[in-house]
Backbone:
């Protein structure tokens, strides 16, 4: 059971906007910034969003993040087939004294 | 550009010890970062195993602490993971990574699948 809670699946059609939620607590998201990772099957996670809403160089601006209190969201606009992947949220946690992750959301582009 | 590469046996016997090494290239392991190990059971999320600083200071996930040792070899630009008394529940892909800060990990190894089975 993951410390951060995400829906196990999400879906959308090309061009649509989808959002993925991530819920935590005061010991993690409520205190620390939130990061999102994208993972394709058989590959390592790739940093997609850091510090709640910042994109690393090379990440399209179709991807955006937000945080409020102990919850966060990842939004993907103009959905494309290549966005089909698993998405994980992560934050530092005071109780663990380490990073905690969500269980991941598998995004399907219909 | 920092690169990380995991290496080690892909099959470990139950009750044995899982041993992996992460080789860092394109940068020095002596930078003040917490070099980290994660694992990911098949079809599941990521679990933080622990981290080590160049000084040798370690932090471990309490759920694994009694079975884990992470060490660093600065002369080889490597850090290593040992997980003792493994069971099938320890099967998964093991990743090494370097954080930039907190839970922001910009650099990851490709991952290595370790199966615990006789």
Residues:
């Amino acid at each position: 059971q993951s410390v951060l809670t995400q829906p196990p699946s999400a879906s959308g059609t090309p061009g649509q906007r989808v959002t993925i939620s991530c819920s935590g607590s005061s010991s993690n998201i409520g205190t620390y910034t939130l990061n999102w990772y994208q993972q394709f099957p058989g590959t390592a996670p790739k940093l997609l969003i850091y510090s709640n809403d910042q994109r690393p160089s090379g990440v399209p601006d179709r991807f955006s993040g937000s945080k409020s209190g102990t919850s966060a969201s990842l939004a993907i606009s103009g959905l494309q087939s290549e966005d089909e992947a698993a998405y994980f949220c992560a934050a530092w946690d005071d109780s663990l004294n380490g990073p905690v992750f969500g269980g991941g959301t598998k995004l399907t582009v219909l | 550009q920092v690169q990380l590469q995991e290496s080690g046996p892909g099959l470990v016997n139950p009750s044995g010890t899982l041993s992996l090494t992460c080789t860092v290239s394109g940068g020095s392991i002596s930078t003040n970062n917490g070099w980290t190990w994660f694992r990911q059971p098949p079809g599941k999320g990521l679990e933080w195993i622990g981290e080590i600083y160049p000084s040798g200071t370690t932090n471990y996930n309490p759920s694994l602490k009694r079975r884990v040792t992470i060490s660093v070899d600065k002369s080889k630009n490597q850090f290593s993971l040992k997980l003792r008394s493994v069971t099938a529940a320890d099967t998964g892909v093991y990743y090494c990574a370097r954080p930039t800060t907190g839970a922001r990990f910009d650099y990851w190894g490709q991952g290595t699948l370790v199966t615990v089975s006789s």
Observations:
- The CA atoms of residues 24 and 82 of chain B lie 18 Å apart.
- Chain B is about 0% helix and 55% strand.
